[in-house]
């Protein structure tokens, strides 16, 4: 059941609807307000609401309200009281509360908006070039990713409850989601560097990123030295190979204007299509920077048939972002009219397995074992959620080819250190896992992996499509040996289509799906969102795994799960696709403004490099803002009373609010506005996220003692379970840490056999070739 409104709750419910659940949406008598957002040309419900609510049922009045809740498995809500009521009605219910800051802590209940959530999370302060004001992530991305996290947590808790365990009260914080998805562990990075000075702007530009072409925009991503060297060769600047300053991200930032001129002299002389084709030949992650129309015409999306029609034929939308067993997803069912099922829904209280009380609370996925062959961030973040929820996850890499995320540690550790153990992008998402090394290019390593898979429930990998077959480990072969196995494949672009063999990172997906198009100042170029696509892809893959696990419970067999990163990004970008296909509207970047709030922006305060975020989404909030400002003459103009009038006069309002903010500290200004009920925030420093009072009160950051990197606070999960004190039980594994224990306990190898494997470099604890 869903009680509440907004993308996060609706998307969490949609993920369950798309997996076959019966989802009841409880709406106020006039219907959910989202129904009236961007209504279709015929005046019917907007496409965004329809997309989120296809296949659900709608109830506006329910005399059997308590009976319905008592018979439910999961209740999604933004109201703590409804969650408490659900838990009182049945000990087996999973009640999930989704709110801006969580339902506990000093910020609980604060007025909030997408902009202020990003501000408090630390995400907003770090985005854009230092010469520009900070810029928000566009497209309400945080709400979609929050819904995905809520769905994974709820699905895992529901699995435990259905097996006879107690239900759960889950508390999801959108700000915690955005700290993970929008700061890329900047606090942990800063700590690993010894807490250098925080003087000066936090904003650091990415380069290469998005650049103009002869007919549009193109994006590049060079996350390795090899990719950057290949980029130099591609743009006919082999003379710069060996320039050790340009070869590093920090070096390119120090010579930003010089490097940008070099790159853009080349890009402006070629079309976007020519550049993307050439980059593919060099295996450099690259994409056209699409708006919604560009997404719809993309050849890869067309061949994979990722877009489907609304049941009424009114618009086009992305399908669910995973495939089970290679089969197409079921066609979407119609969206209900408001209250269409009032008085018609009869859920009899199902016969539940009696709740068994454990002496110690049992995590929901205890007893599930996963072999994790993923690398970088998207895959490890997905298996990391499952590990936090209790699954035994064994991370597999090779000393000949360590997890790519470990390379980030080379820019952090001092000379002579084990640099591969200092990467925040490895340490955070790989907590709670075991870690082994296996050289899968050799028969001995492959044989050991196959034996491990016989002891596992699932295996995750996010290589390009060709890697597993080239190793002789294609999905058909794995499942012929182990029919129970759930094989989760996360190639960036999927297992078929023109881009099936292409390489790509989160930035590539943002550029390709329209998310980058929505991010950036109006007068500037599009920009990468820098982060959300990775944990989003991980959440969607983890959710798909839990769906496949439930299917295996019924059918007794495993299956292939295909969860491409680009399709999870398309779902997150759905609003712009719906606006185009339903209303003919191309959404574009607006800096810190948005269509549903006015005024909304960031304003520089009295103190240099501190900023105030303000968002007014309703006429009531505008009246509160006017009172907070002591009703200056400019603010009492009748043309500002309505949202439409404020949008038209946004520049004039910005000018006045800038002057007001410049007379105050950001902290004082934010507290005054909040006291009047206006969403506002001082932009938090992401390098100090662990010190944020809300995160500290909720123990979002947990102290982790790593044997090499040291003891540091690290973000746990962006949700709390009433039955769980903390999520991080062990640090991320050092390279090959668990070779002996895993190979002896699961496969039965002797100490002598393990020593022989190490002599042959099939396993090891230090990267080869140092």
Can you summarize this structure?
The protein has 770 residues and is α/β, with parallel strands linked by helices.
Would you kindly provide a written description of the structure presented here, covering whatever features stand out?
The structure is a single chain. With 770 residues, this protein is of the alpha/beta class. 36% of the residues lie in helices and 12% in strands. Strands 3-2-1-4-5-6-24 form a 7-stranded mixed beta sheet, with helices on both faces. A 7-stranded mixed beta sheet has the order 12-18-17-16-13-14-15, with helices on both faces. Strand 14 (392-397), helix 16 (424-427) and strand 15 form a beta-alpha-beta unit. The longest helix is centred in the C-terminal third of the chain and has 23 residues, at 533-555. The protein starts with a strand and ends in an 11-residue tail after the last helix. The model has no long low-confidence stretch (mean pLDDT 93).
Radius of gyration: 26 Å
Number of strands: 24
For the sheet with most strands, the description reads: 7 strands, mixed
Stretches with pLDDT under 50, minimum 5 residues: none
Percent range of helical residues: 25-40%
Strand content: 5-15%
Largest sheet, spatial ordering of strands: 3-2-1-4-5-6-24
Indicate the overall shape. Answer: globular
Please state the average pLDDT score.
93
Number of helices: 30
**Estimated structural class:** alpha/beta
Distance between the termini: 55 Å
């Amino acid at each position: 059941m869903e009680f509440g409104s907004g993308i996060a709750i609706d998307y969490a419910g949609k993920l369950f609807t798309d997996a076959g659940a019966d989802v009841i949406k409880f709406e106020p008598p006039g219907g959910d307000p989202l129904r009236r957002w961007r209504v279709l040309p015929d005046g019917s419900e907007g496409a965004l609401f329809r997309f989120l609510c296809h296949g659900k049922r709608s109830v506006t009045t329910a005399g059997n309200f308590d009976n319905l809740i008592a018979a439910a498995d999961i209740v999604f809500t933004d109201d703590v009281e409804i969650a408490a009521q659900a838990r009182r009605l049945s000990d087996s219910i999973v009640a999930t509360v989704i709110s801006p800051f969580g339902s506990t802590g000093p910020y609980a209940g604060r007025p909030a908006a997408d902009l202020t959530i990003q501000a408090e999370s630390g995400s907003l302060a770090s985005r854009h070039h230092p010469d520009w004001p900070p810029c928000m992530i566009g497209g309400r991305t945080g709400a979609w990713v929050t819904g995905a996290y809520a769905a994974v947590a709820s699905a895992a808790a529901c699995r435990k409850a259905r097996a006879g365990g107690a239900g759960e009260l889950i508390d999801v914080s959108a700000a915690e989601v955005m700290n993970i998805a929008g700061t890329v562990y900047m606090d942990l990075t800063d700590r690993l560097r010894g807490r250098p000075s925080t003087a000066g702007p936090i904003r650091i530009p990415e380069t290469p990123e998005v650049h103009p072409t002869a007919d549009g925009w193109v994006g590049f991503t060079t996350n390795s030295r090899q990719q950057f060297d290949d980029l130099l060769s591609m743009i006919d600047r082999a003379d710069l190979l060996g320039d050790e300053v340009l070869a590093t991200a920090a070096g390119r930032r120090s010579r930003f204007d010089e490097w940008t001129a070099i790159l853009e002299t080349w890009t402006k002389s070629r079309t976007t299509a020519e550049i993307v084709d050439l980059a593919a030949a060099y295996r450099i992650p690259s994409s056209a920077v699409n708006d919604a129309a560009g997404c719809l015409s993309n050849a890869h999306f067309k061949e994979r048939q990722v877009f489907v029609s609304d049941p009424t034929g009114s618009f086009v939308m992305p399908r669910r972002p995973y495939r089970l067993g290679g089969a197409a997803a079921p066609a979407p069912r119609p969206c209900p009219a408001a209250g269409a099922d009032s008085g018609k829904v009869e859920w009899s209280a199902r016969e539940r397995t009696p709740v068994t009380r454990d002496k110690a609370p049992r995590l929901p996925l205890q007893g599930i074992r996963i072999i994790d062959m993923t690398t970088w961030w998207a895959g490890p973040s997905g298996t990391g959620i499952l590990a936090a929820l209790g699954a035994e996850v064994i991370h597999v890499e090779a000393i000949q080819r360590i997890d790519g995320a470990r390379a980030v540690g080379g820019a952090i550790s001092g000379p002579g250190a084990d640099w591969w153990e200092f990467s925040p992008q490895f340490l955070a998402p790989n907590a709670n896992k075991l870690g082994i090394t296996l050289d899968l290019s050799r028969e001995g390593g492959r044989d050991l992996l196959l034996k491990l898979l016989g002891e596992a429930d699932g295996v995750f990998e996010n290589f390009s499509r060709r890697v597993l077959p080239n190793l002789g480990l294609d999905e058909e072969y794995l499942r012929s040996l182990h029919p129970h196995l759930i094989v989760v494949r996360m190639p960036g672009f999927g297992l078929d289509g023109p881009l099936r063999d292409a390489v790509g990172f989160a930035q590539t997906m943002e550029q390709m799906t329209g998310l980058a198009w929505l991010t950036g100042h109006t007068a500037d170029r599009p920009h990468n969102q820098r982060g959300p696509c990775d944990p989003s892809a991980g959440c969607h893959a983890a959710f798909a795994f839990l769906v496949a696990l439930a299917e295996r419970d019924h059918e007794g067999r495993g299956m292939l799960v295909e969860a491409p990163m680009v399709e999870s990004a398309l779902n997150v970008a759905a609003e712009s696709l719906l606006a185009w296909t339903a209303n003919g509207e191309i959404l574009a970047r607006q800096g810190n403004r948005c269509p549903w709030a006015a005024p909304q922006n960031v304003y520089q305060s009295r103190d240099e490099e501190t900023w105030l975020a303000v968002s007014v989404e309703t006429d009531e909030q505008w009246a509160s803002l006017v009172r907070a400002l002591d009703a200056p003459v400019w603010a009492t103009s009748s043309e500002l009373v309505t949202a439409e009038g404020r949008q038209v006069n946004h520049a004039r309002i910005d000018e006045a609010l800038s002057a007001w903010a410049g007379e105050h500290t950001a902290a004082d200004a934010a507290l005054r506005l909040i006291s009047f009920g206006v969403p506002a925030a001082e932009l938090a420093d992401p390098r100090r996220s662990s010190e944020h009072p809300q995160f500290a009160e909720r123990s979002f950051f947990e102290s982790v003692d790593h044997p090499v990197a040291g003891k540091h606070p690290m973000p746990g999960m962006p949700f709390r379970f009433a039955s769980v004190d903390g999520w991080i039980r062990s640090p991320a594994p050092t390279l090959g840490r668990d070779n002996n224990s895993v190979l002896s306990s699961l496969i039965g190898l002797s100490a002598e056999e393990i020593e022989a494997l190490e002599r042959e470099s099939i396993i090891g604890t230090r990267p080869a070739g140092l």
